[in-house]
Design goal:
Elements lengths: L55 H19 E3 L6 E3 L14 H13 L7 H14 L28 H17 L4 H15 L24 H10 L5 H19 L10 E2 L7 E2 L20 H16 L1 H17 L25 H5 L2 H7 L2 H11 L8 H14 L15 E7 L2 E5 L3 E12 L4 E7 L6 E5 L2 E3 L3 E7 L7 E11 L2 E12 L8 E2 L14 E4 L6 E3 L11 E6 L5 E10 L6 E11 L9 E8 L5 E9 L8 E6 L7 E10 L7 E12 L1
Parallel strand pairs: 6-13
Antiparallel strand pairs: 1-2, 3-4, 5-7, 7-11, 8-10, 8-12, 9-11, 12-13, 14-24, 15-18, 16-17, 17-24, 18-23, 19-22, 19-24, 20-21, 20-23
Helix pairs in contact: 1-13, 2-3, 2-4, 2-13, 4-5, 4-6, 6-7, 8-9, 8-11, 9-11, 11-12
Length: about 675
């Protein structure tokens, strides 16, 4: 069995200084390089979700900067004069910073996607492919681990191939064939070898080409790759592989992580009806029965498939992306830097001393697919950094994730040359108004391929009495317009999905704006919706959790008195790392405005005026656990004497059953401790 060398960064652990440098790249272009058909940047309109708020030009520039850095550090011209390889510099996955098939596959994906920006892309791709061909195992797939100086296989036993590298190499050959042409025979031969040796008889993916037919590795479940294989190679039933892979993953999620959608690093019993997480030390020294350095890649792959193929084709993957994104946001305290590489399947951190850039990076496509704009923007910003000094693995995953998040990740499943096309989006995507009032949103367009064209804007699905006005009524793709939706005093209360349509010569695209209308008066029965809002009946009506076992709802003390009565919800304050939650499900009636009020007291011994090691959030979640909005955010910096009342508008969720969740998180990183105490809550309709 082969083993990924564990990456542990944190608690003063420094990266090992590596002695083998990266060989300078050849500057000469190929003598007869083909012009790229899909030259970078290829602006895509994804089927679901949101894009980072940064402009398209800003995103493109960030990808170019990251690619330049990745190429200069990890793309090596050697061992032979016509070979290139992706160095594992900084991670120690191969002797002398040599290549592994996983990284070679990553490179064969990145380079074709950057053709047009990189004039030498085809030469580099050919060199990457040449090294693969020069180091095939007995099954015609790449030997998974090579020395950086000799490029000889050095791992123990008979040379074998790894499924993830084999997958990406096959996908890279299809990309190259669509980009430049001339790789079809190589691609078909590779896919045939992959089918014969990496696919188990029942259709699931094995972990390696000489491995058993009983196990699988969820990080290999690159569904978008398999869909591209199905479109490109009709001689094999790749849809069978897609379906079996989804069946295995669905069973695992249902039985082991139904609330969070997490998948363990390795799985046994994949050829049966009850697949299960592998034993803890099944293949690697890190626990194989939870999320680790393998499965951190799952949200990247699941989110990418959902973005490319939409809610119907990729229904399972979209659901997984939504759950995984919500878990990462929860466990990290809404901070991508604290998405830990090892997670238990119940969405708790296995270890908080191990941190890695790639864990937070990989969540990006899932956050996009989940439609979480704020979380997507935070991850995009995080991608511009490398706080833990990660090497090959993190920086290479980052490059691919940035291509997806920038909207420059095109699918080779279609062979047609992109025509003139555009996208439409709105920000904000929803608003709540009292009948008779107006709401505005910015409608932005972007060129996704070809040249800019004139786009006429229109809105449909308005409620009775409402009107829509665009200023201007048409734009050149790349421009924006202000949409004003004006309701009448007689407009019925309710939530209305308004379709914003942009029409051009190439066709039309739409975005949805949700308009919630409430009545000015008399249309809603005033009520207080929370059960046991002052906690005077203990935990009645509430659910609560605590990682240390000290449930928050408790009787008040002289140190932490109640605002009124004798009970409170008391979060943290234990002088050690802890996360406490209190939550209640509530239905906000249609046609009502709703206001949440609560009294909060914060006291802290943290000795800092800038850092926020301890935080408290108020969030609204849907029935699936996805965060719909964060409506309150506090920290140790908000410490004050006595209680302060806070008020927030929840009218946007009228007509929905939502969960109101309060979360206190203490990291114990600064030596102090913080208490967050709430009391006398109310959720009033009016």
């Amino acid at each position: 069995m082969r083993e990924r060398i564990a990456r542990v960064i944190g608690l003063g652990v420094a990266l090992t200084t590596l002695t083998t440098g990266v060989v300078a790249l050849a500057a000469a272009a190929p003598a007869q390089a083909a012009s790229p058909t899909h030259a970078f940047p290829q602006h895509q309109t994804y089927q679901v979700g949101v894009m980072p708020s940064a402009s398209q030009s800003t995103r493109d520039a960030a990808v170019e900067k990251q690619y330049d850095s990745w190429k200069s550090n990890y793309l090596v011209h050697g061992c032979a004069s016509n070979e290139y390889y992706v160095s594992t510099k900084g991670d120690g996955d191969a002797t002398n910073n040599g290549p592994v098939s996983e990284g070679q596959g990553y490179g064969m994906n990145i380079v074709p996607l950057m053709a047009g920006y990189d004039a030498n892309a085809q030469t580099e791709f050919n060199g990457l492919w040449q090294l693969v061909k020069d180091h095939e195992d007995q099954w015609g797939l790449m030997q998974w681990q090579l020395d950086g100086k000799t490029c000889k296989y050095y791992s123990s036993g008979t040379p074998d191939g790894a499924t993830d590298g084999d997958l990406d190499i096959g996908y890279g050959l299809i990309l190259a064939d669509k980009q430049w042409g001339g790789y079809s025979s190589d691609a078909m031969a590779w896919l045939t070898n992959f089918w014969n040796h990496d696919v188990a008889p029942d259709g699931h993916l094995k972990c390696e080409d000489d491995g058993p037919n009983t196990d699988t590795r969820p990080s290999d479940h690159m569904i978008d790759h398999l869909r591209a294989f199905a479109a490109y190679d009709t001689s094999h039933d790749w849809n069978k592989v897609v379906q079996r892979t989804e069946t295995v993953d669905s069973s695992l999620v249902t039985n082991y992580s139904s609330s969070y959608g997490l998948l363990s690093d390795f799985v046994v019993g994949a050829n049966g009806s009850s697949p299960a997480p592998a034993p803890a030390n099944y293949q690697e020294s890190q626990p194989d029965n939870i999320v680790g350095y393998n499965s951190i890649r799952v949200p990247w792959h699941m989110g990418t498939d959902a973005l490319l193929n939409g809610a119907t084709t990729s229904a399972f993957e979209l659901g997984e992306a939504q759950k995984w994104s919500a878990c990462a946001k929860k466990v990290s305290g809404d901070n991508p830097a604290n998405v830990y590489p090892h997670l238990n399947l119940n969405c708790t951190a296995y270890s908080t001393s191990d941190v890695a850039e790639e864990a937070g990076d990989s969540i990006g496509p899932s956050a996009m697919a989940a439609g979480d704009q704020a979380w997507t923007d935070k991850i995009w910003s995080f991608l511009q950094t490398n706080p833990y000094g990660d090497g090959y693995y993190g920086e290479t995953i980052k490059t691919l994730v940035m291509l997806v998040m920038a909207g420059d990740y095109w699918s080779p499943a279609s062979s047609s040359t992109p025509a003139n096309d555009f996208s439409v989006s709105d920000s904000p995507a929803s608003a709540s108004v009292v009948a008779g009032a107006s709401a505005t949103t910015n409608v932005a367009t972007a060129v996704t391929s070809g040249a800019a064209q004139s786009v006429a804007l229109a809105a449909s699905g308005l409620p009775s009495g409402a009107t829509a006005a665009f200023s201007p009524a048409s734009v050149t793709a790349g421009g924006s317009s202000t949409l004003t939706l004006t309701t009448a005093a007689t407009t019925p209360a309710g939530s209305y999905p308004v379709t914003v349509t942009g029409a051009a010569a190439s066709g039309s695209h739409t975005a949805t704006f949700t308009l919630t209308v409430t009545t000015a008066s008399g249309g809603c029965t005033a009520a207080q919706l929370l059960t046991n809002p002052g906690f005077e009946s203990g935990a009645t009506g509430w659910t609560q959790t605590s990682t240390l076992g000290f449930t928050p709802i408790t009787q008040a003390t002289t140190a932490e008195p109640a605002h009124s009565g004798t009970w409170v919800a008391w979060f943290n304050g234990n002088a050690t790392k802890d996360t406490d939650t209190v939550a209640q499900s509530v239905t906000v009636p249609t046609g009502c405005a709703a206001t949440l009020t609560y009294w909060l007291h914060v006291d802290s011994t943290e000795n800092t005026t800038t850092a926020k090691p301890d935080t408290f959030t108020v969030q609204v979640l849907n029935s699936g656990g996805t965060v719909l909005g964060t409506v309150g955010s506090f920290s140790n910096l908000d410490k004050a004497t006595g209680y302060t009342q806070h008020t927030t508008d929840l009218s946007a969720w009228a007509g929905q059953t939502v969960t109101l969740k309060f979360t206190g998180s203490e990291t114990d990183t600064n030596g102090g401790t913080t208490d967050f105490v709430i009391d006398d809550l109310a959720l009033n309709t009016h």
